[in-house]
Amino acid sequence: MMKNYIITVIFLLLLTCCKNYNNDLDKNLNMAILNYQKEYPIPQLTNKNEAGQAIYLYKVYFWKEMRDTIVVLQRSSGGISKLDKGYGIYQDENLQPTFIYDDNNLGSRFIKNKINDIEKNKRYYWLKGATPPENFPPVYKYKVINNELKLVKIDTVWQKWD
Predict the structure, then answer these.
(1) What DSSP state is assigned to residue 93?
(2) Nearest 10 degrees: CA dihedral of 111, 35, 75, 60?
(3) H/E segment holding residue 139
(4) Which residues pair with 145 in a beta bridge?
(5) According to the model, what pLDDT value does residue 3 have?
């Protein structure tokens, strides 16, 4: 009786402790994006004119600064261009639409599956002549150190957003 109880408790602990992370992204990158998205959610658009102009999504950039690999997270209201070269839109039940730019394959350790679903991307193409809202939440800059993302800077462009 006690043995069954202990096994049940251990099983329940394992189920509750193990989060379901996005299978396409490394746990570190996925958690950094989710934390950023929680801090700066996509706003609910109530103004019809603004809703027709804004295409909200999150963007992740990988690049080199000297010898360091840099990862930047930002929320954008301008969508993406069909000419943008990136891995496509990553999205699941937890992750909001996120487009990843990585021209030099610097994020290969963080990106398990490169997605390029052109049909899905089309929903996020910016509209010619559109004027997206000018509100920019802070941009988070990370440095890759020992295969971990370390936040090194929060760059606030505007003092007020949403």
Answers:
(1) S
(2) -20
(3) strand 139-145
(4) 148
(5) 62
